[in-house]
Design a protein that fits this description.
The protein has one helix and twelve strands, in the order αββββββββββββ. It is mostly beta strands and 258 residues long. It folds into two domains: 34 residues, no CATH class; 222 residues, Autotransporter beta-domain (Lipocalin). The N terminus is likely disordered.
Amino acid sequence: MASAAAVAALACAATPAGATEDYFQPYWTAPAEMIAWRGSLSLGGTYARSRAESYNLSLQGDLDRITGSDRWTSHLWMIFGRSDGNENAALFDVRSRYSRDIRKRWFGFVQGDYRRDRPGNLERRTSLGAGVGYRIAERRYLSWYVLAGLGYTAESFYTPLDIIDGPRTRYDRGEALLGTEAEFELTENLTLTQRFTWYPNLSYSSAHRLVYDATARAAITERLSMDVTVSWRKSTEPGVDKRPDELLVVTGLALRLD
């Protein structure tokens, strides 16, 4: 790794001064690793039987492709659960983002999100967005950046919800996007990733939604780890008789696939 880093440093020194600003390459990334796929799968579950029988299964997957100038990331999350024969969890959530460097610390991005939650009366939520980001820090133990952009979200519900100006089965709107994401290497075997995004509603100025996701990953072996994921959502227009926020805490074993 040290020799690879030295080769990369010499290559940068030989590059004309104007070209070094084109793309931002983390100093620890070896040339052989500049184009690589990384992936992981996390599986968790619970089972209980007393007066009622219940179970819950969760599956999470991550897939990243990183080069010296761009990055593509995707995340999949599925949760299934039943209690006393009735469905109490059926969540499907997938998101993907492509980003490309503009200058040394600036980058542009496009992203998409899709979410379905039958017990939560959400038939589907589709969001598309684009904008720019800025890297505040990019180190082996800390990666931290902020995002800003514009997007559009379309929601549909299984049964009508009383939102804004009356019952509706669809709720479409333009949104701004302001967020921050960070990954901390707390110890050699423990990492923490956090993602917080605020979506002000551009179609109805009084409304907005908040999204927070965090995962703590403790390595057991080189490829196996224990995950704890916290997912929190809040909306100022959840619909009458519906909680304004939702919280999920899931644990599981993760297998690194790269």
